[in-house]
Structures are given as C-alpha cells and as structure tokens.
Amino acid sequence: MRYRFLRFPGGKEKAVTLSYDDGKPEDIRFSEIITSYGLKCTFNLNCKKQRDVFLTDEQVQEHFLSKGHEIAVHGALHKAEGCIRPIEGITDILECRLELEKRFGRIIKGMAYPDTGINLFSNNASYESIKNYLKELDIVYARTIDGDNNSFMLPDDWYSWTPTAHHGNPEIMEYIEEFNSINLSKSTFMPGRAPRLFYMWGHSFEFERAKNWDLLRKISDKLGGKDDVWYATNIEIYDYVNAYNNLSYSADGTMIYNPALFEIWLDIDGETYSIAPGEMLKL
Q: CA-to-CA distance for 283 and 273, rounded, in angstroms?
C-alpha cells in the first residue's frame, strides 16, 4: 500500500491562481501587469445590464482571453445567493452564464459568489440549496471569501472555494514568502507532501482607489517566474484536480489508468510519475 499525492503539470508541487471581480476598466491595467509576470487570472463578470461602465467584448477578448485568462460568472445583477430566494439565485446565475457564453463563444462553468455570497442567509436560502442548484446549472466551482488563511490547500468543497488571501491583507507578503519557501520533496511528514495552492482575489479598482498599483507589481514579482510553480486559472485547477481524482486503479493499486485527455502527474512514495492520456502505469 502506497501513499499517493497529486502533482501539478510537469511534476510541480505548487500552483498559483488569481480571481478578480466585476469586469471594471481597471482590469485592463491589472491584466497587463500580471500577464507580464506570467500569472493567470479568472475574471468574474456580471451581465451588461448591471454595469454603467463595463468592458467591451473586444476588450475582454484582447486583454483576458487572448492572454490565457479565464472569464467566469459573477451573477447577472451581482446579488448574494445567500440573501435572495432560490428561484432568484437560479435566474441570476443562469442569465449571467447564458449571456457570457453567447458573447464569447465558449463554455463557462466557474463562478465567484457576488456580494456576501454564502456568508449570510435569508429568504429561505441555504448553502445546501445553493450548492444543489449550482450543480444543476452545470457550475463546477464557486469561489467564496470566507476567511484568509495560509494553509495553501486545495478545496475539499469546490462550491465553497476559499482563497488564500485578498491582496489587501496586511500579511500578504509574509504568506507569499511562506509559500515560496515550501519544498515538499524535503518533507518527511506524510500530510506535508500534499500539493499547495496560492490563491489571491480582489477587485482591480481597489488598486486605483488606493493608488497602490506598485503593490500589485511587488506581489506579482514575488509570485511569478518560479520554476516549481504551475500558473493556472481557476478552471484549469479544477479540471486538472478532477482528472487526477478520476484516475482508475487496480484493486491492489499496482496499475493506474489515465482516462483524461491530458497528462497527469503524481507522487507515489516520494517518486514522481506521469501518466499520458490513455496510458496504464504499472508499478
């Protein structure tokens, strides 16, 4: 019996992802900065009718999609699912998804909860109800904002995906230093070999409001350009982890089959292996 741990593409032990909300014009400057450092972001957008000022389809294509970033649902009207009736939550998410998919010609299955999201509940809303209707709407993950922490762990519930920290957290640079110093190959403690994820969120207009774009550059410089880090969007993280979890094992664990369409990496008792699409690994 062996211990197995997910490794990100290339056998990397760590990943970094960003998530920024509302689709404001400041997202263009934000995207230019993070892209120059090799970071990838999920931009969470509302419907056109919600925003007086919003990005054009051409701007989203040029500054987000063509740079390898993701766009995701943020509600047609930016309403907290926890504070509106379930039928209203369903309508808000579905309208947003339908509009974004039509505008940009791609399947969109991720989201970030708007406003207070799933931190407050009223009007017969509940987390279980919201989670259930998001599944029915083919939403596969939803980012929340409930408590910064430096555990750097992958979510155990994709519908309550808690980021590492908001960029304004006064401990953000310390968190990054701690994350950068992690070296799983040196860990002799079994749980310490689990993969790590640094996940930052916020709103790009906050940098403009605080006149501290230099903070974003400092963060990007500290996070970017690392050979041992996979830089990915939220959906890329989800898809890869899901593919890892769908590996097929023989009863004794000596054979592992990869049914996914991309290569999967894993650590087995301290040795790194990769399994190509359709390949059977025999240990």
A: 10
Q: List the structure tokens of 249.
A: 């094992």
Handedness of CA 228, 231, 235, 236 (dihedral sign): negative
Average pLDDT of adjacent 10-residue blocks, the chain of 283 residues? 91 98 96 98 88 82 98 94 95 96 97 91 94 98 92 96 97 98 75 90 97 98 97 98 98 96 94 97 95
| Single-letter amino acid code for the residue at 2 | R
Please give the full DSSP string across 238-267, using - where no structure is assigned: HHHHHHHHT-EE-TTSSEEE--SSS-EEEE
Torsion of CA 216, 219, 224, 230, to 10 degrees: -100
Distances in whole angstroms, Cα of residue 4 to Cα of each of 187, 192, 195, 271: 14, 12, 11, 9
Q: What pTM was computed for the model?
A: 0.96
